[in-house]
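yo

u said u wanted the structure for the complex thing, so here. seqs first:
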Amino acid sequence: MSGLTLATIVPDIHFTAWEILAVKLVVVLVTVPVVSLIGGYVLHKELAHLQQRLGPMYPGGFHGWGQTLADGIKFIFKEDIIPLTADKWVFSLAPALIYVPAIMLYLVIPMDRNLIVENLDVGVFYLLAIGSIATIGVLMAGWSSANKYSLLGALRAAAQLIAYELPIVLMVAVVAMLAGTLSILGIVEKQSWPFILWPPGIGLVAFLVFFTGAMAEMTLPPFDMPVAESEIITGPFTEYTGMRFIFGFFGAEMAHMVAFAGIITTLFLGGFMPIVPWHPLTYIPGIIWFLAKTSFMVFLMIWIRFTFPRLREDQLQQFAWKFLIPVSLVNILAAGAWVLYAPSWLWK
Amino acid sequence: MTIDERPVETASAGTGREHPAYSSTRYPEKLRIERKMTFGIGLFKGMAVTLKHLFKHNTVIQYPEVKQDLSPRTRGVIALKEENCTVCMLCARECPDWCIYIDSHKETLPPKRAGGRPRKRNVLDRFAIDYALCMYCGICVEVCPYDALFWSREFEYAEFDIRELTHEKEKLSDWMASVLPPPSLEQGAELPGQAAAPIAAGGAGPGSAQRPAPPAAVTAAAERPEQAAKATATATAAAPAPSAASPSQTQAGETAAPDSVARATEEKVETHTGDALAGAVTDAGPSGPDAAVSPTEAAGTGAAVAKDDAVTSEPGVGASTSESGPAGGLEPLSGTSAVSSTQPGVDVAKYQENPGPNVEVPHEEPRPRALEPTEDADAVYSEVLQGQLEKGSSPQVAEARAKVAKVKAQRGIKRGPTPVYTPNLVPSAPTQGHEDPSVPSGAPEATPPEPDPGPVASTAQEPAAGAAPPASRASQPDPPEAETAGAEASSGGAASSPDSPAPEDPEAAYERVLAEERAKGSSDPVAMGRAKAARVRAQKAKGSA
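structre next:
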């Protein structure tokens, strides 16, 4: 399998580290907004078709492909309003603190064996750390807005993060235990059978808990209490307008959604590996496998998102503390037992 | 008593914390176990529901590109059939929003003939509907007694200026092109003509009661305005087509009986060949032969024809259509007749060709179905021709009347005057002494109109009957007006009209007519009725003398 690398594209040119960094930066900074736009478009269309509508049909010509692009441009040209009593610096910085971690998540997601921006040895730690920073941005936005709804939403977001970060971390630990490595590329390559299928039960539970926790951490419906519009308007983003709003709210949401879909694909579904270890399937490039799996996860997230109604805040907390975390603890025990005591021919 | 002290139904279940609504008595244990076992299944059920909808065909209609096929009874815009409007103001009065503006003035028309009574008529100056106020309740359409207002499915008339939303009568008339034909009746539904003309149906042959009427003569004739106008303009008295009705007459309803038109041309009466739409009501008065039937009534009847034409079994209407002559009546009259095609700048074809799949254009017979022919047509033709010539009619008139009689005979339509009883017949001013029924003349017996069992229900006076031999219409008396018109209009009318005899004693007239009728074989009620009428006439003649 020949992976796509810079070396294969331009083989005879040697890059300095700074040049490589610049190229990577450009790639990431172009990719992530584009992915956000595509994610938003898919969101529009899937929601519409789930309700037997058509969704956007005009912008751009073909089935309204330019809808999110036009939305983004519109928001960018809107007036940027900062409330008089707001903490201006914090208020201005908060959207960046939400959006930049979303971009940074993409750095360690391998789209193919060689198509990865940085193959960190502690990639899983990096994911967990970066994935939680956005909540600080949400807290900053809520606190600095000088608005009770914003503050309520921010506190809800913080509580939600604390509640759902735990099952996520535990399930990532399960994956790391099963793979025996913290490197994301290593985790992918260990999955000749995706973890969701093997070992029995443990991987499936881990997948379901991680998926639910990821939905909650991204504050996607039905876990979107921080921005529950019927209760607290738009939560921390109530006071935001224009570009800050679109990047801090919609853009970050879409980027997060696609990023977490990629992370789930990487950790549980075998990443860029074929879905079953059957030789002919390996001729399909890994990036196709990765994109197909990621797209399916995005589809699933949107499907769930528009199927279930929003939980109540107390239900959310009860669900995390009374159900997800116990299940995670049991699962991590089971994973440890499996790693220690299962015969090696079963899974290695 | 606090909530805690309240006796709780669930006390027996052992768990005091349970909500009464979910206590074991009301919420059986079995069901609760089932609920626990299927925990989480509901989530997947919900996702299955949304997934199912994902693959269902969407229901969106992309409006500007794709137009929705609106129901035929959509309340889009109200169209005005201007020639039917009599300025009765009912719509304006009933309108809850008061959004209908009507202006009119009265016009005095000259009498139709010397000594006649000048007639007054309302002329519509302005008819406007302010759609910015209209709430589309449709009361005006419902209340209009003359079928001048119709619903149209058109709805795209938004404007940038609210003042533009007041549609004047020209615009309202333009909407008529988009009015759909009336829907066909349900299977087995009572035919609309039955209730309207029970007498006519009863007197007609067995086949005539269910005979669907042809499409409205109004539109049929209106579709050939140029032809009609040309025929009139050249004043060809021998025009073979009795459809030489001027557009105005044709629009005014079936008053355009062929021989009356022929008479009009013969007398060089200036017929109005102007715009059929605008001049319809206006022109019908002076040129039309109907002395008794006011223009408004004629227009109303014409509209009734237009509206009920889908399935109308009223034989009179059908007969009147066929009376428009061989050229007019025999032409295939198909199409949707509620739409007048003479309006300028109106796209009729769109609606007539493709009114949309929801719209069921009623199937219409291309021509009136013939009844059982009662008489030999050729014999009738020669008979009537002979009678007319003897009477002194001009050859053209005689031929036209004979043709009408022939067509009627071919189609099994009983010839005779209208059975429609007009309560307020305005008698023409007495011109020449024609009141005495005792003096035989070319004109038929002058007896007051009565509910005649004849199948002909035309509101127009039927001068053709006047030409028929007396024997064949012994039971079909003409109203005096028709007789007057017929006698007067024919060129030999003056010569053949009898001089006024000395007034007869009313009682003597009564006895005489009674005896005459009985001798003729009339039934007792008919005979007595005619005798009474003769008595009244005699009294009047006496009084005037």
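Chain A touches chain B at residues 46, 48-54, 57, 303-304, 306-308 (CB under 8 Å). Chain A has a mean pLDDT of 84.
cya
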